[in-house]
Amino acid sequence: MSPSQVIVLATPVFLLLIAAEVAWGIARGRNTYRLNDAVNSIGLGMLSEITKVFTRLLRVGIYTAVYAQVSLVPPEEAKAFWSTWYGWLLALLFYDFCYYWLHRAGHEVAIFWAAHVVHHQSQDYNLSTALRQTSSGALLGWIFYLPMALAGVPPLVFGIVALVDLLYQFWVHTEHVPKLGWFDRWFCSPSNHRVHHAVNDRYLDRNYGGVLIVWDRLFGSFQEEDERCVYGTRSPLKSWDPLWSNLEVYWALARDSWHTRRWSDKLRVWIKPPAWRPADVATRFPRPAFDLQAVRRFDPPVRRSVAWTGAAHFTLLLGAVSMFLWHADGMAATQAAVWLAALTAVLWSIGALLQGRITQLELLMLEAAVLATATSALGLLEWHRWFKPLALLLVMGMVAAQIRQGLGSRRQQALLLAGLALSLAGDCLLMFDGFFIPGLVAFLAAHVCYIALFRQGMGWFPSRQALFATLAVGAAMYAFLFVHLGPVLKVAVGAYVIVIALMAAQAIGRATVLRDRASIAVAAGAVFFMASDSLLATNKFALPLPLAQLWVLATYYAAQILISRHALASAPAAAAVIPAAAGPESSLSLRT
């Protein structure tokens, strides 16, 4: 049985214990759970587990290679010793010792904190927090366990004691277990670990032990719980986005490394303590000092219906993740990659719903787009034929909701709906053999509608640079495809390339004039359209691409969603109509 399958079997136990803690907290009048935070924490644990399918080489492969090639103990002698009961016990102690130093590095070295921060972002402290795990820890964490490989600990023994150490730590994430006397002096306990998760001055960077707290007492990092704990990080995440949760510190470090002038500081940013910043960067981009009294929990309001929707979809997602993890070891890498992309996209969407960034209808739309993409990439064509038109119908529903809110002029509304209706026709035609040309014509007409939409309140192609750039990209793509096309397709594809290049030029030019987030999002959507069609044509006519349907449909739905969600939101009518292909001077005067 694989570690992923063990986690699947343990999941119902985790959830039952979480439910018991919720019930206990409610009964005692001290509930420590919020739905949005718990969903975010459990979701990050799910993301961590599914990414482990792709980090086996780092987590197990390197360890196994070092054990096989560099072990200081002959393999037979090592297996004989480590397979005894005292060998297993020593292996667990050895692992916990290594874990202590990895954990300590995770708080005292910036690059390791970038991975470990995920576990500390929750401002609640409960059993769901235990499941909140990093997806990038395997990138460097394996280094700390190499001493076990050198000592001849077999990979199987290593894997099992690692799992035992991890599972032990689940129960210590609770506020409902008080101090435990002598137990607290030897083992990592709820009291000791509450200290570890707190941001109080006296608690910061303390109590790193996994199973034993003895390591902290030996190496001077122990602190007893003696004041109320305030949980989270000193730079709060303030988001339910699982991707940003994993990337926020890496991004901050990369930004500081980029902005600092000294080359030595560009490196030191990554290896100094997390709070350290180069002097020039700290001066140019100051951060407010941490004030414990000013800490407020991130808790955006959410309607009851939205909360129920998020919880229901999250429950379904949990089942899908469990199914994936159970079968992951037998999957091809490409198939597993599709699952990873689909499950991550749905997890992101649920977080966005609970944060108020998208509506319930938009959640359904995103999920339909994800399922249309995944079923195509996995070859589930019967399901794909349902989800593909459904996704566009839900996009049209989203636009209808915008129209009810009064967004856009009637002409803009009609052009956007016409473009989507023609895209829907193209979607349906392209799903069946022999209808490529009619599908191409439908999409060509859709792009003409989009060109007209993007011209509302604008001149023709406000940016010469954008026009020349998109036409040049289109010409290069057409030249690449030309030798692979028949006579009829040469004409059809040539016309299509020109139209989509003009659509992108019009959208980008519009963004250079308006300079608002909505118009920039529309321009990004137009660029995604060019990318999607280029990938489709390359795969169909010139060169088969790995996971072609994943890339083609992911960029296609990104294009349609960005355009549909933002095309009516900007207000070009408020600006003067500028001449076609206006120069920089006229654009500047318009903005000022």
Question: How does this structure look, described?
Answer:
With 592 residues, the protein is mostly helical. Among the domains are: 3-219, no CATH class; 405-565. Helices cover 68% and strands 0% of the residues. It has 27 helices and no strands. α2 (35-52) packs antiparallel against α18 (333-354), α19 (360-377) runs antiparallel to α26 (548-566) and α24 packs antiparallel against α25. The chain is globular and about 80 Å long. The protein starts with a helix and ends with a helix. The model is unreliable at 573-592 (pLDDT under 50).
Question: How are the SSEs placed, and which strands pair?
Answer:
Blueprint (H helix, E strand, L loop, with lengths): L2 H25 L7 H18 L3 H15 L4 H8 L2 H24 L1 H7 L10 H4 L7 H4 L4 H5 L4 H14 L13 H5 L3 H8 L16 H6 L22 H18 L3 H9 L7 H6 L19 H24 L5 H22 L5 H18 L3 H24 L5 H21 L5 H20 L8 H19 L4 H28 L2 H26 L5 H19 L17 H8 L1
Helix pairs in contact: 1-17, 2-17, 2-18, 5-6, 5-10, 6-14, 14-15, 17-18, 18-19, 19-20, 19-26, 20-21, 20-26, 21-22, 22-24, 23-24, 23-25, 24-25, 25-26
Subcellular location: Endomembrane system
Protein name: Fatty acid hydroxylase domain-containing protein
InterPro entries: Fatty_acid_hydroxylase, Sterol_desaturase/TMEM195, TMEM86B-like
